[in-house]
Amino acid sequence: MENFNFYSPTEFVFGKDRENECGKYVKKYGGTKVLVHYGSGSAIRSGLLDRVKKSLEAEGIAYVELGGVQPNPRDTKIYEGIDLCRKEGVDFILSVGGGSCIDSSKGIAAGVCYDGDFWDMYEGKAPVSAALPIGTVLTIAAAGSEGSGASVVTKEEGMWKRDIGSDIVRPRFSILNPALTCTLPAYQTACGATDIMAHVFERYFTNTPEVEVTDRLCEAILLTMIKETPRVIEDPNNYEARANIMWAGTVAHNDIIGVGRSQDWNSHKIEHELSGLYDCAHGAGLAVVMPAWMEFVYKHNVMRFAQMAVRVWGCEMNFENPEETAVKGIKAFRKFLSEIGMPINFEQLGAKEEDIPELVRKLGVEGKTGGFVALSPEDVAEIYRIAVRAK
Amino acid sequence: MENFNFYSPTEFVFGKDRENECGKYVKKYGGTKVLVHYGSGSAIRSGLLDRVKKSLEAEGIAYVELGGVQPNPRDTKIYEGIDLCRKEGVDFILSVGGGSCIDSSKGIAAGVCYDGDFWDMYEGKAPVSAALPIGTVLTIAAAGSEGSGASVVTKEEGMWKRDIGSDIVRPRFSILNPALTCTLPAYQTACGATDIMAHVFERYFTNTPEVEVTDRLCEAILLTMIKETPRVIEDPNNYEARANIMWAGTVAHNDIIGVGRSQDWNSHKIEHELSGLYDCAHGAGLAVVMPAWMEFVYKHNVMRFAQMAVRVWGCEMNFENPEETAVKGIKAFRKFLSEIGMPINFEQLGAKEEDIPELVRKLGVEGKTGGFVALSPEDVAEIYRIAVRAK
By CB distance 3.0 to 4.6 Å, which of A342, B54, B59, B153 could disulfide with A337? Predict the structure, then answer.
């Protein structure tokens, strides 16, 4: 096991009706003037936004609002948020939405405290050294942004997707009410589930030996997703299944299951170019990329893929031919994705084979990019081509 | 799943040589005058205490020392610590040792900030409302106290064992170097492993339905312990196995695997009277009590015990007779405990059947005590009797 630090100070407030306590938690964490940041109209239509505002009012906390965060959140909204916060003297950001909304909130929170163009931080030209405190009311189990220091933002001009990672933008509290996710359409639910599973796989495929405890924890989350996802696709109002998925989504990405081991993250990078170019859902892009990536790299460590096949997908181990077991596991994953309604190839995603050179160019892979297996631009192109052909 | 809050703000600093950074972390968390609290002479003999002091000196941090914490830490040492801290103007406690040492440190930290007798808090007569900040350098993987708000202390007069639980006494940071545990004798190592597994089982046996994610996380920790414990018993210097056990021990008890479900904790209560009366190791007492408790309660939910047998102990499910599978799982647990060198009955522990009425009396069970199965005093006596006969 490698040396590591693990720090996850976010207070998670989980369960039915907990959004009605958001005012109390904003107060607890020092907010006096709040930016309520949200995405689509569904937070308005469902009455969620009203409940949030009522909870703030009950605590006598002033607020301003900024809605309209898009999936794959844009830099333009963040500039707007930074201006609004400065003008209104906002000292706390309350993010009501999914990963895109929370990622946008993190950009605003850091941007308000930075003198230059906030995009500098996303391009790695400036460190994140201060941010307004953030709280969240999560509406989609997917990105894990409610318990992480990560934020991914798209620059509208050129559709560049870049990220930051810093404890400074970790939410102070995150309210997780599984019931809020019951209104999600099946497609978005499945996208979220795929994202959660991908967060585990990015950690699972490691070159660090002897990491049984985190291996087992990773498998625990995957087994949960395999059981619970089809249940919510079949019955969107299954609160218990929604609750299991929601906690799995948080645990999958606050890194308690990924510490002390090398991680991969190439599938995320390869996917980011798909959602950057086609503006598709991140989870849908991952469903296309991740099994293709697995097929490209599995020979690097056949026994690890066999372990996944046996422990996660319940395949019988073929002791005479472990490679057959490894391949079966990857096939089981793709079959599962297809069954929950995810695209599994370029056509189903709405991507085009002829764009592959452009996708590779934008990814900007110079030389080899590390992780489980270092990939050259040509390797990345081949992974995209596998994803074209997949069925 | 039940509503819950999860809050684990401790910064975990894990890996080889990390104790040399303790001065840096004390500084980070605001300490200027430190009580270095430790247990036995082994911290001195191994040179650990010297490295800790050197690290404090390198940061220019003043300190006083208080050693001699016993296993099953005593109120008398805590009174001594409180006096010393007040006299010396200590503002931070650095605990160098195992669970007993950390529990003692929590008692001192809370006691310094309380006007009356600190024991009031352990008897539930006063809340824990303030405490000095605490950091730890862990030397035994067992109690999970490095990542919890719990502290168990024994009142020397009458050997009463009582506890507190409060976020206020959670360590600010905990340094976990698995190499520090390599010098532990096999018996203490096995006691620690048993304690870790017991922390999982106390959460695993729940009456809350539909808690797949935490079930699977619990099973992940148990599977890790079943793999890694025999390896460290065989080769005490196996760093990788020690590392897996150490992280498992922390995850087992910071409650990320136990949220949203009813928990039991009767085995811990029943054990506390054994270690209270005989001053035996807590883990050894648990090895005697826990399988006996399982045998007494398994009929309450045969399928849950069958799940443990199949998923944790690798038993074949007997679909015609699940009870047989359930019983096999319990037997496998006791066999495992015996194989790692733990006592499994009263005689091996040094306990006496004739003391059972006294043990039950001191536990002070009035009416029924809750958890997975509510137990009457007679039920507790029967569990002790099962533990007498076990082999």
Answer: A342
